[in-house]
Fold these 3 entries.
Entry 1:
Amino acid sequence: MRVYACLQQGNVHADRHCCAASSAHVQTEIPSLRPRLTRPRSPNTTPRLTTAAADPALVRNLRLFLLHAAQKPGWSSELEDLLTNKLELQPGSKQHALQVICEAQQAVMTPAQLVELETGLHGMLRLFSTHELLRLLQGHPQLLQCPLASWLEFFNSFGFNTSQIKNLVSQQPRVLIDSDVAKAGAAILQLKQLGFDNDEVRHRVVAFCPQVLAMSEQDINMLIRLWSKFGVGVDERAGM
């Protein structure tokens, strides 16, 4: 009996020792399952990611994020190549010419956006020379985020000629930046409901105030009422 008791007591101590060792082992192993970032050894070193049993997709996405964060914001080689090709820039001058434009892009453009932009630039080059378009984009780099192809199709569908489109885009580029095609279409329909025909919309209203394409219905009504009172190119028959 004493021998059995001693053996049983020894097993209890052994079990406690094993449990303690297992607990310590778990405490030391669990933290290693969590991804952790370590500081880079030099300013030019990308932070390293050490993982154990981590989601491969999560690791891949995090690595891509870190690599992108180490680059200049928005500087896209695809965008640079597209502009270099469309604007016919020489290798020695493209860095200076595109710096302002590319650095203004705070988000990397998707493939669909690049296709839209390429189509839009192709249409813009029918209106502007390469030098004129470059100057326009340098002054208003936000135009690269606009659906230029959709805007050009919109103007053509409402009968704007080449000269009118060029004047509007070059003199009032903020209209394309601040508005969108749907809002501009609603503005033209509102003007027609007020009694203006297509020619009057193009030549009397939009030509005089392109900002009308970015206005709401209420603002358009107030503008036309103000014009009619002061006799600025409209008359009382326009629904007022």
Entry 2:
Amino acid sequence: MNKKIPLKLIIDTISNEKGLSEDFIFNAIEAALISATKYKYSFDINVKIKINKKHGTYITYRLWTVINDPAINEKIESPYTEITLSVAKIENCNIKIGDKIEELIESIQFGRIAIQAAKQVIIQKIKNAERELIAQDFKSKIGHILTGTVKKINRDNLILEFDNKAEGILKKNDLLQRETHRLGDNVKVYLYNVITYKKGPQLIVNRSSNEMLIELLKMEIPEIEEGIIEIKAVARDPGSRSKIAVKTNDGRLDPIGTCIGVKGTRIQTISNELYGEKIDIILWNSDSTQFVINSIALTEIISIIVDKDTKTMEIAVSEEMVPQAIGKNGQNIKLASSLTGWKINVISIKEAKNKEQMEIKKYIKMFSKKLNISEHISTILVNEGFRSLEELAYIPKQEFSKINKIDEILIYELREQAKNLLLIEEKSKNIKQLNDLQKLQLDKQIYNKFIENNINSCNDLIKTDINILIKITNLTKEYCDNLIIKAKKFLS
């Protein structure tokens, strides 16, 4: 049953030249012996090999899996690898379903064929290990720039080769505008994923991502790589133009000049790599308005209106500066918006004045109508900066004297009138809300429970979680669902 393996021979002929561990060799020999043993049989069996590493001997077992006894007239599905529980218990009464039985069988001779088989197994294992090492090596480089050689060009992709070890796919829509390549060209790319296949790793790369530009900046500008200059935001139209927002905590350093380099050498090197892509270095600012002004990169801005609610800025510039501010096909304004996160509208000073006049007329009309005052008085209020009833209603008394051309007594009366109007509007709003809830024809008890829990309108009802409604009303889910449906119908 015991057979001896010429371990010295195997180790000398295979192991030393490959620099493999002893465990690796024995695993390969074991796999080869199992394969050779199975080959002896005309039917499929399960085999286990136990190798004595010290003495170079091995024992072979045939394995059986214990299964439940089949029903009458049913056969065992795998009679060469399975044994029924009743038969197995003849030898071992404690055996259970799923246990393995080891049957000692004659071991094969480890001759020339077995040695060759072991060698083939080892070679295959080496190939697999090498592929895995290559894959792990490239996975450690995800997020960095690599240089590949164009190996093949098809309709949708460029196939690149890296160090004769792996292939990468560069999709044509991940190239830059006007960028073309020939076979054998060396191309810098950004590695963002590695997919492992049986034949080896496949690298997924691109040249159009923001990350590609950031990595090029790190390579060319040591202050960015070292963290002295921080990249805060990037906006890019790949191959055409990009904007980079930077900042530094080192007050002695000019971040823009440092990035551009002496005579523009640093930024020009990056631009050349990106087929002439124009790169604007913008000074980042924590103040959103100043950051937007910096990103537009204009020498003169007439005015800027900020709407924080819609995150919009309207910038007025001279007539001749409008095309420059907007840029070709709106590129400058689009990149500035993307960089800052604000929607930016650029208008001429003439448009700004016209818009301002229209706004002034709107406010004059509003005050005249709501306060029942002359257009002359309304105009004075607007010229003093008032734009709403709230602003007028809550003006401090000590500010009365600062309003020119209107008597303090009249200002006081207008302030009180504005307060009363706001109270009336608030009451009307509440009445409308109550009325809209009452139109659901609710039971008085349920209606009161809603009011107690600050559900004052159909809109409040719709926004309230169904489980809370059930708890408030002590009614069924179906009833509360129907209430919500009725409220939605009423609002629509």
Entry 3:
Amino acid sequence: MIPPPRSLPAAALVAFAAACTPALAQAPAQPQPDQSQPGAPATCNPAPAAGTVAAALCSDPAARASDRRRAGAYEALRHQLHPAQRPGLEADARAFQAFLETQCRPGGTADAACIARATAAKREDLLRWLQPPAREEAERDPDAQAALESRLPAAPEARREVIATLQRGAGLPATGFLDARTAALVLPPAPQPTGAPPTQPPPAEPPTAPPPDTVWLPRFPAALNARYAVSDCGAPTATWIGGGLYFGNRPVSGETRYAIFADEQRFYLFPAGGGPARILEGQTDGSMRLSGTIPPALASRGVTPGTVLRRCAEQPVRIEVAPRPRRR
């Protein structure tokens, strides 16, 4: 059986959900769950093979809804557990799948009602291990939870890191769970009767200190670790990774240890030696608008405040490190 959960340590890493876009609403859509992952909800697109447990589950709305609720409780417990305890939870998920095969598929024909009852019982079993606010997240309607998660990174660990960062910025306990108070941070603002206010332009003069209402980030979010074309994607490109700027996969001198702050629209990068901010603003098409003080390495290549760098096709960023001189 699943071991008792350990208390969750405060999650700590980086990021806004829409790292390359101006708001959380621009985060990429969630992919279909991978049924190979223990505990994941059944994948119904493409349709499972006829006669399987998954096929019966996907064809019955009650069974499918019950399975999604079970999967929500499983994911909450997975995050609550210490990493060393998660293999036990995964083994329990595999055992439950085997139980469905043996108990809810008599004579080779899957029984949707049996599946619905079994998944509901398994959910109750998982819920009893959850502590607040994990239980608050797990008890949310699956459609409402999916709507929240669609505004966050798809990968579970990255999503939890984003949630913790939002909580920390709002002065909430950094649990990484989407409780009600945290969900309010992720939801879009209520529509204004006179229309939403326009996006505020960047400051006329680059700030030399973090603007109000910004959140400190220990490093750039992974979504910024892309290649941005200064001239062309076939030429050396700019990348923001870790805590600094890389050009042509090499660190740029004087731009490697930024103090990073962000609000819902922009990243403000302050050089380690002091000075005005370099400002990055994600665009809806994934490109990056630069303003504030332009790093000399980019300014020498024609980049000026207001320049928009096109995001290149996804390719791994290969960071090059200069070899150390040999000792004599």
